[in-house]
Amino acid sequence: MSSSSTSSTERVAFRAQVLSRHLHPSPSSSSSPCLLEPRACLEYPPSTKAMDTKAMRKRKHRFRHESDGHESIAFDTKAMRKLMDDHNLEDRDWLYGLIIQSNLFNPRDRGGKVFVGPDYNQSKEQQRVMTMKRIEYLAECGVFKGYLTYSSPPSQLRRFALQEVADSFDHSLSIKIGVHFFLWGGALQFFGTKRHHDKWLSDTENYRVKGCFAMTELGHGSNVRGIETITTYDSDTGEFIVNTPCESAQKYWIGGAANHATHTVVFSQLKINGTNQGVHAFIVPIRDADGNVCPNIRIADCGHKIGLNGVDNGRIWFDNVRIPRENLLNSVADVSADGQYLSAIKDPDQRFAAFMAPLTSGRVILASSATYSAKIGLSIAIRYALTRRAFSLTSNGPEVLLLDYPTHQRRLLPLLAKTYAMSFAANHLKKLYVKRTPESIKTIHVVSSAFKPTLTWHNMRTLQECREAVGGQGLKTENRVGHLKSEYDVQSTFEGDNNVLMQQVSKALLGEYVSAKKKNRPFNGLGLEHMNKPCPLIPSQLTSSILRSIQFQMNIFQLRERDLLNRFAAEVAQHQAQGVSREITFTLTYSLAEDLGKAFADLSIMQIFIEAEEAVPAGHLKNVLGLVRSLYAIILLEEDAAFLRYGYLSTDNAAAVRKEVAKLCVELRPHALALVSSFGIPDAFLSPLAFNWIEANAWPSVEN
Amino acid sequence: MYKSVSNLVLEETCGSVRIYTLNRTKQLNALSFAMISRLLELFHACDHDPSVKLIIMKGNGRAFCAGGDVAAVVRDISKGDWKLGANYFRKEFTLNYLMATYSKPQVSFLNGIVMGGGAGASIHGRFRIATENSVFAMPETALGLFPDVGASYYLSRLRGFFGEYVGLTGARLDGAEMLACGLATHFVPLHIIDKCFSRKTVEEIISVLESKAVEHKDEWITSTVQTLKKASPTSLKISLRSIREGRLEGVGECLVREYRMVCCVMKGEVSRDFFEGCRALLLDKDKNPNWQPSRLECVTDEMVDRHFSKVDDIDWEDLKLPPRSNLPVHAIAKL
């Protein structure tokens, strides 16, 4: 008895010793001048944040006195979190708490800390059951209260905030909720009229009805107008007849269809008296209350996927399914009892546009969801880089913290700066969306079409870098960074293929350009007003202070957009002058279109960042934000070949840019922990790798 | 008239063990400023003394410790300076923090009443021994205060939404219940606690409890609703938010935030419920506090926010906790 307790004490003492040797190596006595000097940084474990910042400040202070002359600024991470999350902080914390406190969210103890997250080792069937159970629990707690019945801007923002929190737990959870509320519920709200609202909205809100959204087909995705499902009207019975005429018309990837949905909104061509009136939406019940598939409907599973296995994606075939005439969602067009087609909008193009406009909310959500995923990846990778050491630079010297290597800083910190920029962008887009007016619809369409691709691509790139930056540990599912890649990969495809959306951006910009030139009026809208001013000049010698000035950063982004838009317009005009059709012209001018779309997105985000920064009172926080903004601007100058390709930067300037990137990384390095802490993601939503990964991997954890 | 400090905290040495006994039996060992200062000194000394391996805390009489000496705090403040009150809490929270991050095991014998500050002086330590005489409660909302001494840290880490329940209602737990706390208690249907106390706002919590009361006709539910309605509306709102925020914070952050809150309460500019609560329950003992505002819906978000903001006063600063090298990663609540 006593011997076993002694040995366990010894084991604990031994482990503590190993741990402390690893984490607090004795400072090397030789003060050899060395580029890679281990810098002051948090002590392991990064436990309580309040203490970290204080302890850090103290240590920094001492450091400044003793050796390095680096300026460092501690700032209030709570205030920064407010900027990052922007709205509904209390609602977010409430939902984080609901998740952490319930066994349904698979809490696991790793090294004395509890982490939540689905068990991805379960079969897809089990994962789907769990997703549904979690949703039912959240519904019971009142999370979805008012999701469809309140529509004020604050309640829409609340929905966005809660969606982001659910997303931080598991992408499947948020997607399954999103399909039900934003796609099915949104279709009812926006395409339906009072009779649909009365019948279905409140039942949807409390999950008596489970909805899905059948738009995509095997043969048609982004090109919704090409779908092949056909609906006709039978005036004898007053019913619509929905039919899947061929295999490529089967509905595909319909989230919720495989197991749980009771209803779907079907997108279909509407043929009245032999005339095709274009795409319309209908409500079709697909399962009865007991979960049996309705007659004349066939449903198959989409099978195992690379991610999102907690969502039951299915395929649907309609075999001349009859539904009442009232099931046409008739906000834009209707069919009378005797079979006459009625619509206030005569032009089918406009009708289609009116139809699709409300679906923008999906893109808005995806854009912000992507930034939260990037935040999780970076929080984990940077916290790990602040506790993991590798290689010593002197014989018998201590091993160096990963984040003290300039290479590691260069890999992670620019992505951190971009994630800050994109968070501001996502917040801006959400507000633009909830305050929408008929006049702002176009702007929202263009901005969301630019931001959704930019932010989702950024997330995928960030996750890949984070996965590599944490090394082999990134391969473990429970460490999240690697696994998130497969969960979020789909974001570049759904709610509008990223490349297709980016082309729409440059088309819209061209439209503005052509109409301004034709009417000979100044640019007004889509942020193009800078084109009315004289062309900005870029200094031939870029110093550090020029590179960091807001003026220069705006100038060079505006120069790029202005020049690319001019070039794009000229190229299009040239093709058309040769008699090439508009459609074919756009397929030929893709290179400039792509550069222009990027230029628009980067400039818009830059502008939003600057506005956010300007609203912050002078002080430490603002100073750090300034560094982050500069790194964001300058890394783009370094990465996008367009600046060199079109000569906005000389090769000398490009070299100055590259130097500045390295300098900014060094300056941001001491703030890395504070910057990721400001993301406000609770510890339980990160992973063991972000904390005491030795304890989490120690033998007693295996035994438990 | 006063016992000397050394009599209020009895000190014994037994090999490498130090035994500290709270000895203010008439006041149920309520912690005076002097006692807290002494404990702080003792804990600091033992921290650096390699001969000390273990600290035992006990209480003489029928209480381990009934809490902080709030009556004295109110008396001090009524002499004109709220900062005397703030000073008391700064010391107390620092002691709580020291215990939570202590390098050596602290064993507390909870043989009797453990409330408020008494919980703060024991729960943060590594071992707590409950007995059949233990009575635990965080009764602050009835006093116009909120569960402090790091309660937003340890209550928020109880299973489900038990922490919200215990913190808002001041419910009393016996020894067995304390022991079971991840707490499968027999006297309360736990799923009802979770259903009600998981709600976003105090108003919603009460309204769900009331609708359950109609369904179940359960005495526990009705008495819970009554307790909540008797408590200070401002206290309830700040307590709920404190526990919710605490759930996502470390123990140090919890104490720093609670210090902001307690200073706001002491200053008495947003609400004077604490003074009214102490008057009604501790001084006049009419048990009939006149809360201002008297209704939950009159407590605005702005009023709640101010409890969580820095105190607007030139000399005031956030609680500065001593740097500790021994922060346990798993500084989990240990109730």
TrEMBL record, chain B:
The keyword Hydrolase applies. GO terms for biological process: L-valine catabolic process. One of its GO terms (molecular function) is 3-hydroxyisobutyryl-CoA hydrolase activity. It catalyses: 3-hydroxy-2-methylpropanoyl-CoA + H2O = 3-hydroxy-2-methylpropanoate + CoA + H(+). SUPFAM superfamilies: ClpP/crotonase. The keyword Translocase does not apply. Pathway: Amino-acid degradation; L-valine degradation. CDD domains: crotonase-like. Transmembrane segments: none annotated. Keywords: Hydrolase. Its EC number is 3.1.2.4. Pfam families: ECH_2 (PF16113). It is an enzyme of class 3 (hydrolase). Hydrolyzes 3-hydroxyisobutyryl-CoA (HIBYL-CoA), a saline catabolite. Has high activity toward isobutyryl-CoA. Could be an isobutyryl-CoA dehydrogenase that functions in valine catabolism. Belongs to the enoyl-CoA hydratase/isomerase family. This is 3-hydroxyisobutyryl-CoA hydrolase. It comes from Daucus carota subsp. sativus. The lineage of its organism: Eukaryota, Viridiplantae, Streptophyta, Embryophyta, Tracheophyta.
